[in-house]
């Protein structure tokens, strides 16, 4: 085949995964587009994973396992693919997020990934690349993962999503005014969905604020719960009910103290108009 990139599976875990994916696809006589159609991804995405230009997310690996009939072999192999662009623990969280029945999130400083426009995500990532914290390729991976996470929400039944944003998420400008206006419009659209709740934790909450750091709490279809939080070095997925329940209680208290959805949307609309 012309322009077919040769892979060295010994060069990296990503190359090993790509070589195996290509081999499994070839054994079935499928093109990249055909495998893409069976997994819900584009042929271009399949190509990028096969050639090591894009790391396989847990969701991608799981979809490939189902399409290829390989049990959980690819999903398990994907765990060995080092993903420097993402905090340790985050890929594992994303796999659960894609299956959660309810998602409760609290964010500080930036609009959370599930609610970001593509332009906001790109501008935020560009800043991280410019600082030298990640490479351009890793930046592309982050942006692609934001899109994948948002796409995973389009499932039946649609998950219930409660989002509480610290006021700093709205006040911090990312990109130009047009970009922020589009992002604010995205938040208003999110609030109008039938299975979502959007609230703002305003600065004047003061000591009534029960949470000070970002956290996400997932409720799975079997009603089990888990929480995810990050430090500067890593993310931590907590499954022990004894530790998650106090976090869930604090989240309910946060919702009670935060502005109502109507008041929150009104604040966003004032910011769009340049009104404090």
Structure overview:
The mean pLDDT is 89. The radius of gyration is 20 Å and the shape is globular. It has a 6-stranded mixed beta sheet, with helices on both faces. It is built from 12 helices and 6 strands. It has 2 domains: 66 residues, lambda repressor-like DNA-binding domains (434 Repressor (Amino-terminal Domain), Orthogonal Bundle); 183 residues, Endonuclease, Chain A (2-Layer Sandwich), CATH 3.30.870. With 276 residues, it is α/β, with parallel strands linked by helices. A hairpin with a 5-residue loop joins strand 4 and strand 5. The relative contact order is 0.11.
Strand content bin: 5-15%
Terminal residue distance:
60 Å
Using the CA coordinates, give the radius of gyration: 20 Å
- Named CATH architecture of the largest domain: 2-Layer Sandwich
CATH fold description of the largest domain: Endonuclease, Chain A
The SSE string, one letter per element, is HHHHHHEHHEHHEEEEHH
Structural class, by secondary structure, is alpha/beta
Structural shape: globular
Q: List the uncertain runs.
A: none
- Oligomer designation: single chain
Tell me roughly what share of residues is in helical segments. 40-55%
How are strands sequenced across the largest beta sheet? Answer: 3-2-1-4-5-6
- SS elements, strand count: 6
Mean pLDDT: 89
CATH class of the largest domain: Alpha Beta
Give the tally of structural domains: 2
Largest sheet: 6 strands, mixed
Number of helices: 12
């Amino acid at each position: 085949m012309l322009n077919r990139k040769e892979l060295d599976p010994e060069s990296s875990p990503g190359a090993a995964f790509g070589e195996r994916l290509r081999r499994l696809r070839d054994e079935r006589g499928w093109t990249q587009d055909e495998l893409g159609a069976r997994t819900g991804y584009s042929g271009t995405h399949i190509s990028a994973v096969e050639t090591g230009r894009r790391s396989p997310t847990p969701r991608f690996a799981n979809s490939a396992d189902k399409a290829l009939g390989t049990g959980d072999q690819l999903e398990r192999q994907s765990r060995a693919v080092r993903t420097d662009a993402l905090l340790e623990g985050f890929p594992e969280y994303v796999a659960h997020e894609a299956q959660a029945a309810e998602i409760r999130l609290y964010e500080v400083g930036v609009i959370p990934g599930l609610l970001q426009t593509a332009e906001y995500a790109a501008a935020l990532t560009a800043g991280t690349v410019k600082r030298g914290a990640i490479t351009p390729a890793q930046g592309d991976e982050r942006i692609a993962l934001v899109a994948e996470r948002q796409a995973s929400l389009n499932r039946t039944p649609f998950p219930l999503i409660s989002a509480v944003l610290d006021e700093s998420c709205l006040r911090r400008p990312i990109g130009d005014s047009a970009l922020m206006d589009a992002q604010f419009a995205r938040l208003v659209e999110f609030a109008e969905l039938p299975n979502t709740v959007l609230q703002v934790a305003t600065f004047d909450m003061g000591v009534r604020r029960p949470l000070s750091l970002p956290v996400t709490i997932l409720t799975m279809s079997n009603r089990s719960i888990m929480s995810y939080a990050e430090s500067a070095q890593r993310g931590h997925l907590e499954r022990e009910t004894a530790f998650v329940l106090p976090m869930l209680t604090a989240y309910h208290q946060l919702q009670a103290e935060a502005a109502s959805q109507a008041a929150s949307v009104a604040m966003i609309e004032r910011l769009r108009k340049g009104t404090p």
